[in-house]
Design brief:
The chain is of the alpha+beta class. It is about 50% helix and about 10% strand. Strand 8 and strand 9 form a beta hairpin. The protein is rod-shaped.
């Protein structure tokens, strides 16, 4: 099965719109409606003189009014391109001295405030991250995950009888020695090669060879390895 990386989540949501941007968007809506109304008025008046003149008198203000409405929607939804277009319009408006100049200066001050810039940046960044993730997923091959193979079972070491107690010892690879859990100690080569005593052989478990313990209360021998009485 192929697994891809999850898309970046936008759990933070959009940042709250500044009041100045809300007011500016409403003013752009009013300006757009005004331009469209002026275009309709001059278009009707122009038709009385010349049809072509009436069409031009309507088209130019109407197009400008629609552009204002589009900018207003962009500002309302936090689109940075709308902020850039509004800045361009405000710079051009500086030429309309004195009223246009004053209004344009106020608009430029509002558009360059820190909270306004942060608002547009916050609402533009998630879309950029999403596009970058989609491009990286298209360019990057999907990583294939295969089911891990079963671990190989290591061959069991041959058990060896402890020369001290007669129990089974374990071979420790780290020290290359045999270890007795009953005696809790390592055995030397001499102890390993020596045979268990007759007493140890007598008390050895007939099934596993470990040393058994005599239980007085039951009068029987008990093997800790087999966990049963013999």
């Amino acid at each position: 099965m192929e697994y891809g990386q999850p898309s970046p989540s936008n759990t933070g949501g959009k940042k709250e719109r500044p009041t100045s941007i809300t007011i500016l968007a409403i003013l752009y809506i009013l300006a757009g409606v005004m331009w469209i109304g002026m275009g309709a008025f001059f278009g009707i008046v122009g038709l009385d003189f010349l049809p072509a003149l009436g069409a031009i008198c309507f088209a130019v203000p109407a197009i400008l009014g629609v552009l204002y409405l589009v900018i207003a929607i962009g500002l309302w939804t936090g689109q940075n391109w709308a902020r850039m277009v509004a800045i361009i319009f405000a710079v051009i408006g500086l030429l309309g001295f004195p009223i246009g100049t004053i209004i344009s200066i106020i608009i430029l001050i509002l558009l360059f405030k820190d909270n306004v810039k942060a608002y547009f940046k916050e609402n533009t960044q998630p879309h950029t991250q999403q596009q970058q993730w989609q491009q990286s997923q298209q360019q990057k091959p999907q990583q294939q995950f295969q089911k891990p193979s079963q671990p190989q079972q290591q061959p069991q070491q041959k058990s060896k009888q402890c020369p001290g107690c007669g129990g089974q010892m374990r071979y420790i690879d780290e020290y290359d020695r045999w270890y007795c859990d009953n005696c809790q100690e390592y055995k030397s080569i001499e102890e390993e090669t020596s045979a268990p005593s007759e007493e140890q052989q007598k008390n050895a478990c007939p099934d596993c060879g470990d040393q058994m313990r005599y239980m007085d209360e039951y009068d029987r021998w008990y093997c800790d390895s087999c966990q049963e009485y013999k």
